[in-house]
Write a structure and sequence with these properties.
323 residues, alpha+beta, four-stranded antiparallel sheet
Length: 323
């Protein structure tokens, strides 16, 4: 998920009762829920490192207790007096763990089992940025402030905001479960049809940004991928309305691209990889090779794509990441 969601969830968790474990709970949680995303700085090491390290080691089960300890020690050194180390560590651990748990629910995924397994795990039922989740968390955040205004007018005692925070967390759980059920429905619909005259090898559904009933349907056959960018669960599904992308035959251009570190890293990340080869005209010849992850868009219209220019002798002379 995005860092706005992580930060708001940390504040809500504090108000829901974790602030009873430590007087520094709110700031501890804000730091802890964002701590695993420090791996974003690996982008300075280049695009290949950005793919191989992002949502990897720092999002794993192994890293959780260590990151929580780091956050706790930093806050303990700053606070010094009256610092409850045990309560602060537990709060930090919950905050750190919430980050990859959220990330598991979206299409990008996370390598939570590193170093035992480098496999990307993703449930695909929540978008990476979800305005409905923002709204739910903001309601839990703002409700106590509105309650204080009303209480001040009536002369009553203002609440702590704990009830509103617990309500927001329950609402978030219900919304997420609803998204999960809609995802399973989308997958079941896709899996119940024939495509290009054959049973699909696999199907998938990626969530839209704001509409829980809209999904991007993906189908893989032996020689093709089919993509449904406007799949609406409130309408009848038309299996002939997808965009078909045929898999190119293996060739020297693709073989040359596979030897490049950027392409190898992207292949580990991409769950729906589509290769395309476009011959170049002119005296030099060669071809442009593109590798697209269909989860995030169509070829040429996505933020998750890498390309290479291969000359006539089969040598990669230029690479270009777009993610």
């Amino acid at each position: 998920m995005d860092n706005i969601t992580h930060t708001l969830s940390g504040i809500i968790l504090s108000r829901a009762g974790l602030n009873r474990l430590s007087p520094h709970a709110t700031w501890l949680l804000v730091a802890a829920v964002n701590a695993p995303d420090m791996d974003v700085f690996t982008a300075f090491a280049g695009p290949a490192a950005s793919i191989t390290e992002h949502r990897g080691a720092l999002h794993s089960l192994v890293a959780m207790p260590l990151l929580a300890l780091l956050v706790t020690v930093v806050f303990g050194l700053v606070a010094r007096k009256n610092f409850r180390w045990g309560g602060a560590y537990l709060v930090s651990l919950i905050g750190v763990a919430s980050n990859p748990i959220f990330d598991l629910a979206n299409a990008y995924g996370v390598r939570i089992l590193w170093p035992i397994s480098n496999r990307w795990i993703h449930a695909d039922f929540l978008p990476i940025v979800d305005p409905w989740i923002w709204a739910i968390l903001l309601v839990g955040l703002v409700a106590p402030w509105l309650s204080r205004l009303v209480s001040a007018e009536m002369g009553a005692k203002a609440g702590s905001g704990r009830g509103a925070a617990i309500f927001a967390l329950c609402l978030l759980g219900g919304y997420s479960f609803g998204r999960y059920l809609l995802h399973e429905r989308a997958v079941a619909i896709l899996d119940s049809h024939i495509y290009q005259g054959e049973v699909p090898l696999r199907v998938g559904a990626m969530p839209a940004l704001a509409n829980p009933f809209r999904w991007t349907g993906l189908v893989e056959g032996k020689e093709f991928f089919e993509r449904y960018p406007e799949m609406n669960l409130l309408e009848e599904f038309n299996p002939s309305a997808g965009v078909v992308y045929y898999k190119p035959a293996p060739g020297p251009e693709i073989a040359a691209a596979r030897r490049i570190a950027l392409f190898r890293a992207f292949l580990e990340f991409a769950q729906w990889p589509l290769w395309s080869v476009t011959p170049l005209t002119g005296p030099e010849g060669g071809a442009t090779v593109e590798l697209t992850d269909l989860r995030f868009g169509a070829p040429g219209h996505t933020g998750f794509e890498v390309s290479a220019r291969v000359d006539a002798s089969g040598r990669v002379v230029e690479t270009s990441p777009r993610f």
